[in-house]
Description:
There is one protein chain. Strand 24 and strand 25 (about 280-285) form a beta hairpin. By secondary structure, the protein is mostly beta strands. The longest helix is centred in the first third of the chain and has 20 residues, at about 5-20. The chain has three helices and 27 strands. It has helices at about 5-20, 25-30, 40-50; strands spanning about 70-75, 75-80, 90-95, 95-100, 105-110, 115, 125-130, 130-135, 140-145, 150, 160-165, 165-170, 175-180, 185, 195-200, 200, 210-215, 215-220, 225-235, 235-240, 245-250, 250-255, 260-265, 270, 280-285, 285-290, 295-300. It has four domains: about 5-50, no CATH class; about 65-130, Thrombin, subunit H (Beta Barrel), CATH 2.40.10; about 135-200, Thrombin, subunit H, CATH 2.40.10; about 215-304, no CATH class.
Amino acid sequence: MNKKSFISMVLMILVVFGGYYLSKPWLESRTAQTRSPFTGTGQEADQADKAGGQPQSVEQIKIPVQPILVPFQENGLWGYKDGNSGEIKVAPQFKSADNYREGRALVQMPDGRFAYLDEAGQIAVEPFSAAYALAFSEGLAARGDRTVGQYIDAGGQVVMTLDCKVNHSFKYGLARVALADDQWGFIDKAGRWAIYPSFQYVSEFSEGLTAARINGKFGYMFTNGNWAIEPQYDSASIFSYGLAAVAKDDKWGYIEKTGYFAIPPQFEVARDFNYYGLAEVLAGKDWCHIDRSGNIIDRFGTQD
C-alpha cells in the first residue's frame, strides 16, 4: 500500500468513527451538563429546550420589585408613598412616621400610641403605649416607659424586659442602657451586662468605639470595654469618617482613633462629619462647613 492510499484509508476511518461518536446519547447528556454558566445551568437550559425555547437571558428574567415606601405629610398627618411612582400607598393618618428599617416602619398614632408597619404598609405590630419606641436594629426594637424597657421582635413579641430608665437600639450586638441612678452600660442580646453600668454616659458604638464619660471626663472604649483612648476630654462625640469631635479647654477639634488631633482644638462648636464628608463648626461667630483636613469650605451663618 502506497503512502497516498494509507492516508485516504485513515481519513475514511476518522470520518466514520467521528459520526458514530457524535451520535451517541451519552455524549448528549454530557454536553447538557457543561453548558456555559453565562446561560444558566445545564438543567435550566434543558428545561428551556424541552419547552421549545431558549434559556432566559438576564433581560428576559423579570425580577419583582418591592415598592419602596417613603413617608410624606399632608394636612398635619403622615402617610406613605411609593418612592418610585409617588402613588399614595398609606393614606395620611399618623402623628409621625419614620423611614423603613429592616422591613418595619415606626409610626405614632393620633392618640400617641406607637405601632410598626410592614413593607406593604399594613400594621405588623399592633399599637402599644410607651414613653418612647425606636426603629428596628439587628432584628430587635427598643421601647420603654422610663422605668421598664423592652425589646420586641419583628412580630411584636417581647423577647427581653429590663428594669431601666432608658434602653437603646442594638449595634455591634450591644445596646446602651441607663439605670434609674443614671449609670450607663451595655447589654448583649441575652440581657447580660457586657459592659457594666459604671459610666455617667455612653454614646452608641460608631466605627467600633463608644464615647464614655467617667469621673467627669470622656474617653473612647472598644466593644470589649477596654479603653482605646483614656478619658481626658470635657465633651466628645461619635467617630465618623475616622474622626471624632472632642472638646478640651473650651475649644473643639477632631481626633483620630489614636487620640491624635487631626484638626487642633479651635472651634466654639464642632459637629459630626456628615454623609458628604463635611462637618459644621462655629469658628468665632461664623458657622462654617469644613472638610476632613480642617479646611473651611463655606460660611452659611452667623452666631448672634
